[in-house]
């Protein structure tokens, strides 16, 4: 309002107002610019949004202010240029710090014990969603697209780069745990890939990203399917116990019949016992794992049941009515129905809400 009310003195009144405005604002920005852009990692997000608020208001009046200052002194013109430069430079530094924080988030931090979404993923997506609220202003702070991405939006390119950095860090975290806890790493990546895609789909971010990477959604759907297949493979040892006689490595398993030799009885017993042990061990290991997305949880369960239950049902029906043992309760621990019920109990998680919610914060945002 002050800039538009030059009074009766033409540009003179506006120059006076601009001088007072820039005198105070430049002093503040130049005096506090370092702390705004170079604060603690947990605060740089807040610093950026303060700067964006300042720049958004200032940018709306920039052409008008430039026109007013043009009639002032050289010192005033330099003050305007300096003020604009400081705000843009500090905001750009905060954006760069954001990318660096993702890249440098420690790989050695433990995965969530239930394999759910990592704090790095949730905080990064929250940060992007809030940035997108000011995407027009953010775009003025980003460099022009490289030649091979000419015509794409600046914010779209930035969002793609951030998601790529996030994915690389999450995969590095999972890979470090892979040797000791391969299934946990698989569930962890499954949950995080799904969270990234679901969060982007529920916001306007996905359309910006797909304007740069048209196959982004398809890529992440493929990653999710890969993790489901990888999880299914972790049950292969249990399934192999159920392969019929003469197939693969089970040539020692006799065909179903009414009378077995001692060696044949032992072979059938061993198959049931091994399968039971595999199921017990898988449950003991995976009972903590949690898939919070109900749709995804059901999809994984259905895929796993399709992998295990038909084979067990056939094996059970073939041998349960034959006289391979006098202690059927010991070996026929599962019926096909009870096995299916057991598999339906996976991915509910048995950790408490407090344990599941225990996550290290990377960024902390404050809205007034």
Task: Give me the secondary-structure topology.
Blueprint: H1 11-37, H2 44-60, H3 62-69, H4 74-103, H5 119-132, H6 135-141, H7 154-178, H8 182-201, H9 205-212, H10 216-233, H11 236-240, H12 262-286, H13 294-319, H14 328-331, H15 336-344, H16 353-356
Helix pairs in contact: 1-4, 2-4, 5-7, 7-8, 7-9, 8-10, 10-13, 13-15
β-strand amount: under 5%
Shape: rod-shaped
* Broad structural category: mainly alpha
The number of strands is 0
Poorly predicted runs of 5 or more residues: 1-10, 24-43, 245-249, 351-368
Short recap of the structure:
The chain has about 375 residues and is mostly helical.
Textual characterization of the structure:
By secondary structure, the chain is mainly alpha-helical. It has helices at residues 11-37, 44-60, 62-69, 74-103, 119-132, 135-141, 154-178, 182-201, 205-212, 216-233, 236-240, 262-286, 294-319, 328-331, 336-344, 353-356. The longest helix is centred in the N-terminal third of the chain and has 30 residues, at 74-103. It is rod-shaped, with a radius of gyration of 31 Å.
């Amino acid at each position: 309002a002050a800039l538009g009310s030059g009074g009766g003195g033409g540009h003179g009144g506006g120059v006076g107002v601009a001088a007072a405005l820039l005198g105070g604002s430049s002093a503040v920005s130049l005096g506090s610019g370092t702390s705004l852009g170079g604060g603690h990692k947990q605060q740089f997000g807040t610093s950026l949004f303060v700067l964006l608020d300042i720049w958004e208001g200032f940018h709306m009046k920039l052409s008008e202010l430039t026109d007013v200052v043009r009639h002032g002194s050289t010192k005033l013109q330099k003050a305007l240029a300096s003020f604009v430069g400081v705000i843009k430079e500090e905001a750009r530094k905060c954006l760069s710090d954001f990318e660096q924080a993702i890249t440098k988030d420690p790989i050695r931090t433990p995965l969530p014990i239930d394999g759910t979404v990592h704090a790095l993923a949730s905080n990064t997506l929250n940060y992007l969603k809030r940035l997108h609220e000011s995407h027009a202003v953010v775009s003025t702070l980003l460099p022009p697209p490289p030649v091979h991405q000419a015509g794409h939006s600046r914010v779209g390119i930035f969002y793609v780069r951030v998601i790529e950095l996030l994915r690389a860090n999450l995969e590095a975290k999972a890979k470090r745990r892979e040797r000791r806890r391969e299934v946990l790493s698989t569930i962890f990546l499954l949950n995080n890939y799904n969270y990234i895609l679901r969060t982007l789909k529920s916001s306007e971010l996905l359309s910006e990203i797909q304007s740069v990477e048209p196959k982004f959604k398809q890529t992440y759907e493929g990653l999710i399917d890969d993790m489901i297949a990888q999880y299914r493979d972790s049950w292969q040892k249990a399934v192999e116990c159920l392969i019929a006689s003469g197939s693969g490595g089970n040539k020692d398993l006799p065909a179903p019949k009414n009378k077995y030799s001692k060696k044949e009885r032992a072979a059938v017993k061993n198959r049931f016992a091994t399968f039971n042990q595999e199921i017990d061990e898988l449950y003991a290991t995976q009972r903590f794992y949690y898939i919070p997305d109900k749709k995804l949880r059901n999809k994984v369960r259905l895929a796993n049941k399709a992998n295990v239950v038909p084979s067990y049902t056939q094996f059970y029906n073939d041998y349960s009515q034959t006289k391979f043992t006098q202690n059927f309760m010991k070996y026929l621990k599962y019926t096909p129905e009870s096995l299916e019920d057991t598999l339906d109990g996976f991915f509910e998680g048995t950790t408490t809400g407090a344990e599941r919610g225990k996550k290290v914060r990377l960024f902390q945002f404050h809205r007034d």
